[in-house]
Design a protein that fits this description.
This protein is an all-alpha fold. It has one domain. The radius of gyration is 21 Å and the shape is rod-shaped.
């Protein structure tokens, strides 16, 4: 497994969902993400959607500390996304590399890698962005669920202590 620098070792409270593990799948795929792998970009997008659905249905909750760590990873990606896509946009046009057939071949290869088809970097980054945005929404929902559950437990304990 390649080192990505995206490691989270803080306490995150994740209640496993009954029908799968969308949050863990998203976070695992996201931590090992590569915009050169279309299948992986699609998995991140789908896992972000699943994670949001899971959070909306109350399928998981996350503590503030865990939320802060995961949110940072998501916002770091989103903050860098615009610059990377802009830079790739400049490569999406053939560079003047000369008039030889080889120069045209190299220039056109760069265009294809950047955005020439559905398996290029720009479409893959767009898929990843969609998944990350939905995961971020899911984390917000899950953090709220955790806070509400924590508050309900505190009220129950306060009432229990009062009854003693």
């Amino acid at each position: 497994m390649a080192e990505t620098g995206a490691h989270f070792d803080g306490p995150a409270t994740v209640v496993p969902p009954a029908a799968g593990d969308a949050a863990l799948n998203f976070l695992t795929d996201f931590g090992n993400a590569s915009p050169t792998d279309t299948a992986q970009a699609q998995r991140i997008s789908q896992a972000g959607q699943q994670m949001k659905s899971l959070a909306l249905s109350g399928g998981f909750a996350i503590s503030q500390e865990g939320f802060d760590r995961y949110k940072k990873a998501c916002t770091d990606f989103l903050d860098g996304y615009t610059d990377v896509v802009h830079d790739l946009g400049t490569v999406a046009y053939p560079a003047p590399m000369g008039s030889s057939p080889y120069a045209y071949q190299v220039a056109n290869f760069n265009v294809k890698v950047a955005g020439g088809d559905d398996q290029s970097l720009i479409p893959n980054l767009n898929l990843m962005k969609s998944g990350v945005e939905q995961a971020l929404e899911a984390l917000e929902i899950a953090r709220k669920s955790y806070s509400e559950a924590d508050e309900a437990h505190n009220q129950s304990l306060t009432k229990l202590n009062g009854d003693l």
